[in-house]
Amino acid sequence: MKSPSLLLSIVAAVTMTFGLSTSSVQGQVCAGDVNGDHVVDGADLAILLGNWGNCPGPTWATVLEWAPDAAVVTDVTLRNAIISSGLPWRVRDNASNIEMLLVPGGTFTMGCSASTQYGCYSDESPTHQVTLSAFYIGRYEVTQAQWQAKMGSNPSSFSGYSDSPSRPVEQVSWNMIASTGGFMSVTGLRLPTEAEWEYAYRAGTTTAFHSYPAQPTGFNDDTLLGNIAWYDSNSGVQTHAVGGKLANGLGLHDMAGNVWEWCQDWYGPYSSGSVTNPTGPTTGLDRLMRGGGWNLFSVYCRASRRVYSTPDNVSDGVGFRVVRTP
Questions:
Q1: Are the C-beta atoms of 286 and 309 separated by less than 8 Å?
Q2: β-strand 135-138 against 275-276: which pairing, if any?
Q3: Residues 245-303 pLDDT 10s
Q4: Which domains does the chain have, with CATH numbers?
Q5: Which of 136, 167, 326, 166 is nearest to 250 (CA)?
Q6: HSE-up (13 A, CA, CB side) for residue 155
Q7: Residue 63 phi, psi dihedral angles, 5° rounding
Q8: Of 166, 207, 174, whose CA–CA distance to 311 is shortest?
Q9: How far apart are CA 271 and CA 231, in angstroms?
Q10: C-alpha distances in Å from residue 92, one per residue of 79, 80, 214
Q11: Are 44 and 33 within 8 A, CB to CB?
C-alpha cells in the first residue's frame, strides 16, 4: 500500500511538471488537462497514475498521437475511455500506410426501433445490447491510391479525375478484399464486423445520423446530412475525395455516404439478447454493407441501415475501410 506521503509527493511532482495547480482552469486546454475537459483535477491525475510507466507503441504501426485531440474527440467520456485504454489514439499502419484511430471498448444499443425513429427496416430489429473490445479503424475509406499501392491496379470507375487517388476505391468485391490473396491478406488488416462498424459510426450517439440530435422526418430528409455525407442530393453523381465532410465524434470521416462499406459478417437476423464481440452467422449467401453512398437517399446513411450483396459483386458505389485488433 502506498503511503500518503508518497502519493502527496507524486501529486507535487505532477503539479510541478505541469506548471499548474490542480484548481479549476477554464477556457483553455492546459498542459495538465489530460482528458481535455478544461479542468486540471483528480480525474487527470487518476488517468496519469493508471498509465504510469513506459508507453510502448504497437509494433505494427507508427504512433502519430497518443492522446486524442480535444478539438476532434470533443466528448469527455469518449476521450477518457481512449486515454484510459493505455493505447495510442492515432496511428499509421506500417504495412498499408493507412491512418487509423482507436475505438475504445464499450457497450451500446445496436439496431433501430420503429417506435422511436423514422425509416427503420424490419431487419434492423430487435434492438439489442452489444459489448465490444477496443479496435483500430481506418480514419477514412480506403483510397484508390492505397489500393493500387498494394494490389498493383485500380479497378475504380471514378479513376479519371485529378483527385482520383484520394477518392475511395470502388468496384471491389468482398472476395477481392477479404479472400486469400486480397487486400487484407497483403496488409494483415481485416474488415470491421457489422457491430464494430455501427459502434464506430455512432461514436456514443443514439440518433439516426451521427453528429445530429434530430431524427429524420422523411425518406430523403436533406436537412441533416449536408455537412457529414456525400449522397444523392449533393454528390453530383460521383464519389469524392475522402475526408471532405465533417468527422463523427471519434474523428472518422465518411462513415455516412460517399461509398457503401463492406463488413466482415454474413447477412442474417439479429439476436434478441445481449452479445459480446459478435461476428454474425457462420455461413450465408450475402455479405453486409453499411453507411450509404453517393447515389442513394439520405435514409440509407442512417447508423442502423443494413444492405447486403453476394461476396463476388462489384459496384461503383461500394468500397471499404480497414480494422485492426490491438
A1: yes
A2: unpaired
A3: 999 999 999 999 999 999 999 999 998 999 999 999 999 999 999 999 999 998 899 99
A4: 1-53 (no CATH), 57-324 (3.90.1580.10)
A5: 136
A6: 16
A7: -75, 125
A8: 174
A9: 30
A10: 19, 22, 34
A11: yes
> Which amino acid is located at 167 in the chain?
R
Helices (H), strands (E): how many in the chain?
7, 12
pLDDT band at 313 (very low <50, low <70, confident <90, very high): very high
pLDDT in the model for residue 127: 96
- Distance from C-alpha of 310 to C-alpha of 176, rounded to nearest angstrom: 12
Cα 42 to chain centroid distance, Å, stands at 29
Alpha-carbon gap, residue 225 to 161, rounded angstroms: 25
The secondary element (H helix, E strand) that includes residue 323 is strand 323-324
Nearest residue to 294 (alpha-carbon basis) of 234, 217, 219: 234
Q: Residue with C-alpha cell 464494430? A: 196
pLDDT tens across 128-139, in order? Answer: 999 999 999 999
Q: What is the mean pLDDT of the chain?
A: 89
Q: Would you put residue 108 in left (φ > 0), alpha (ψ -120 to 50) or beta? A: beta
Residue 108's identity, in one-letter code, is: F
